[in-house]
Amino acid sequence: MPFSFLSPQRNKEEMQGNLETFKVENEHLKEENEFLKEDNGLMHQTLRDQAKEIDRLRSDLSQLKSEHEKQNVLVQTLSGLLADPVWLENEKLKAENASLRKNGNFSSKEALLADENAKLRIENKVLKVQNDALCGKIISDSDQKRETEQEKCE
After folding, report:
1. At a CB cut-off of 8 Å and minimum separation 6, what does 146 contact?
2. How many whole angstroms separate alpha carbon 64 and alpha carbon 58?
3. Three-state SS for 139?
4. Model confidence over 54-75: pLDDT tens digits?
């Protein structure tokens, strides 16, 4: 404020007016400062809550990945176990056929061999269907469990 050559009374009144203006402005600034401090505190709390949620989600994701890996191992193991009987059955058929061919005498046992082979082929197909069904169920159960876990996270 430029220096003025006013009367001392006028100068005093002007200074008191300025003082009142500054007091009001100071009060407004104090209120705004308090509001901003509260807002800042709320933002910090929100950030802490979000960080906790991110940590929880990371932990859940890690557990789900681990569970998925375990289920994959289980599916592979079960598939191997289920496939082994089918493979063994095929090998048995081959060995039996080879043995019968080696021993000869096709004419008298040919009908019996054809019936036995037909039965074994049907049994083989049934085992393959059972294998496929069990693998499908394992995959379906795994998918359903994953969906349930995802719904829990939401």
Report:
1. 64, 68
2. 10
3. helix
4. 999 999 899 988 888 888 887 7
Computed over every residue of the chain, the mean pLDDT equals 82
- What CA–CA distance (Å, rounded) separates 73 from 103? 44
For residue 3, the tally of other CB atoms under 10 A from its CB is 6
Report yes or no: 86 and 124 within 8 Å, Cβ to Cβ: yes
CB 61 within 8 A of CB 146: no
Give the list of residues 6+ apart from residue 71 with CB closer than 8 angstroms, or none: 138, 142, 145
pLDDT band at 34 (very low <50, low <70, confident <90, very high): very high
Distance CA 92, CA 81 (A): 17
Report pLDDT for 29: 95
Beta-carbon contacts of 72 under 8 Å, excluding residues fewer than 6 positions away, are none
C-alpha dist (Å) from residue 111 to 118, 119, 121, 138, 147? 11, 12, 15, 40, 54
**Residue 4 — φ and ψ, nearest 5°?**
-120, 155
d(CA 149, CA 147): 5
pTM: 0.43
